[in-house]
Amino acid sequence: MNVSNLPNFLPTIVLMGLRGSGKSTLGVALAEALGRPFVDLDERTPALLGERTPADAINQHGLAAFRKAEHDALQCVLGEASRHALVLALGGGTPTAPGADATLAEARKSKQIVVVYLHAGPAELRDRLSKTDTASRPSLTGTDMLDEIETIYLQRDALFRNLASVTVETAGQTDLLEHVLAKIESL
To answer: What pTM was estimated for this model as a whole?
Structure first.
């Protein structure tokens, strides 16, 4: 797809999905294709707490403090996005941070952002994550990270679908970048 086919003013694109759905990887490629900055909330949030990774931040400060910092980081980035469009990859649980769902819904309603839900089912996520270093990804339920995928999926899928401008199925996509650009163009 030629990005010149996209509307002249394309708002900030927010990539949302469970961990392992490809938000960060796709975000870098999408930002490069569109010639705009890329922001990964999984880097901004721990930095607010003086930590390197989400796992470090959660382990040192607790999940509640991490979620608060996550919402603070989201608000800060959306402030930046009001001045210049960018590509933002949310953390896998960002929409569950207190107030974050309302912040995302309001920004979407005001057309400041387009929210793309990168949907991957539990089996696909388990397969992807089993091939990565999971040390920077803390357990959220107290069980093994791979074992909790279905539980987290069931807790978040409906919320993510509700917040999304568009849902993109990632399974079987040979060129996810092209597929996402086409979905955004069709909005």
So the answer is: 0.91
Please give the helix or strand (H or E) that residue 117 lies within, else none: strand 113-119
Burial (0-12, 13-18, 19+ Cβ within 10 Å), 29:
middle
Q: Provide the domain count of the chain.
A: 1
User: φ, ψ for residue 66 (rounded to 5)?
Assistant: -65, -45
- Say how many Å lie between the first and final Cα of the chain, rounded: 15
Q: 100-109 and 63-81 helices cross at what angle (nearest 10)?
A: 20
Q: Which residues contact 62 (CB under 8 A, 6 or more apart)?
A: none
**Which strands make up the sheet holding 166-169, listed edge to edge?**
38-40, 87-89, 12-16, 113-119, 166-169
Q: Which two tokens stand for residue 80?
A: 């930046």
Residue 112 sits in a domain of what CATH number? 3.40.50.300
Q: Which two tokens stand for residue 44?
A: 């901004």
pLDDT in tens, 90-139: 999 999 999 999 999 999 999 999 999 999 999 999 988 888 766 666 76
**Residue 144's domain spans which residues?**
3-185
pLDDT per residue over 50-88, tens digit each? 999 998 999 999 999 999 999 999 999 999 998 899 999
Q: How many CA atoms lie within 13 A of 127 on its CB side?
A: 6
Q: Which two tokens stand for residue 3?
A: 């990005």
